[in-house]
Design goal:
Blueprint (H helix, E strand, L loop, with lengths): L1 H38 L29 E4 L3 E4 L8 E10 L2 H9 L1 H13 L3 H4 L2 H18 L7 E9 L1
Helix pairs in contact: 3-5
Keywords: Cell membrane, Cell projection, Chemotaxis, Cilium, Flagellar rotation, Flagellum, Membrane, Transmembrane, Transmembrane helix
InterPro entries: FliL
Family: Belongs to the FliL family.
Length: about 170
């Protein structure tokens, strides 16, 4: 009878070891998967995923999706509308236009365009442009104001290449 109790004890111990090893493996695998999911940046994509192809051009417009012509402006430095008057904005802005004709008109009217941009920028407060939503709204307003000056075409996009508030 003592031999039976001893045999059961050994068998139970082996089963416990297997159970503990299984739990450790499951917890380790779960921790590893959790780590991969939590640290998942841009490089955590599965290898089988192919990069997205650019959308096809719109019907009737063979240049749709192709970048337009860039018009680079000199830097703008303005005082922001602020109670203390101590905040400055330095911005460098590029405008995308669809054709050389629009670029030529843009260049011809550069003084008028700089004027409307300076007035718009200096009317902004730090609170309005410090957040992403404010910058996106400012892009829309810049595009609308510049398009009011142009007569032969329209600006299709606005890019901030420098945007510093001090």
């Amino acid at each position: 009878m003592a031999d039976e109790a001893q045999a059961e004890g050994k068998g139970g111990g082996g089963l416990k070891l297997i159970l503990i090893a299984l739990i450790v493996v499951v917890l380790g695998a779960g921790g590893f998967i959790g780590f991969l999911l939590m640290s998942g940046g841009d490089d955590a994509q599965p290898a089988a995923v192919a990069p997205a192809a650019p959308p096809p051009p719109a019907a009737g417009n063979p240049n749709a999706g192709a970048p337009g012509i860039m018009v680079e402006m000199d830097s703008f430095i303005v005082n922001l509308r602020d109670r203390e008057g101590k905040r400055y904005l330095k911005a460098k802005i590029n405008f995308e236009v669809p054709s050389e004709a629009v670029k030529t008109e843009f260049t011809t009217r550069k003084a008028q365009i700089r004027d409307v941009i300076l007035i718009l920028l200096s009317a902004k407060s730090f609170a309005e442009i410090s957040r992403l939503e404010g910058k996106l709204q400012l892009k829309e307003e810049l595009m609308a104001r510049v398009n009011q000056v142009l007569s032969s075409g329209r600006v299709s996009n606005v890019f901030f290449t420098e945007f510093v508030v001090q």
